Amino acid sequence: MKFRVIPVTQFQQNCTLCWCEETKRAAIIDPGGDIAKIEAAIKEEGLVLDKVLLTHAHIDHAGGTAELSSRFNVPIEGPHKGDLFWIEGLAKQSEMFGFPKVETFRPTRWLDDGDQVEVGNQVLDVLHCPGHTPGHVVFFHQASATAQVGDVIFQGSIGRTDFPGGNHQELIRSIREKLFPLGDQVEFIPGHGPASTFGYERQTNPFVSDRRG
Fold this sequence. Notes:
The protein has helices at 35-44, 59-62, 65-72, 84-88, 90-97, 168-179, 198-204; strands at 2-8, 13-19, 25-29, 48-53, 76-77, 116-119, 122-128, 137-141, 146-150, 153-154, 157-158, 187-190, 196-197. The chain is α+β, with helices and mostly antiparallel strands. GO terms for molecular function: hydrolase activity; metal ion binding.
């Protein structure tokens, strides 16, 4: 599986185009906006978009979901149903953060811990990792040891927990009990900023490193 990061919106959110190299079938993870940029990347790579995947429903990750799904006539998978209230509040979110007006949507499929998502011949494992939002999920591709972690963890930092439904202890537990056990070698693509590995963060991240006990 291949991955291409497409920074979108004024928040420079890491929307990710991922695809199966054998079939050229693709998914877009977290289309926060800038649909033209996303469409251009799909065309440049010569791919067929099969679905939209969401880690969570904050505006900078989900703002372009309805438009992209409608334009390509593809299903929406994720996040976990715990983020329904964020989806229902997308219009309010767009006003609050100065985003263009967006349409709300209903996921074709809510995702739960242990589910799997297919992209061509490739499979992504779903981990429910609440804390940043109640319904946040992470997508893990075992074969390439790559995780799409949304806003759960970043290089040197972790997701905010001061928004409605956020929970700091839940977030720490998600990172330590769900993500770190996947392996130190796993590279993750966060919702913002540069990629890192779980091993590097386990050693150095001031919020969740082993040194914190």
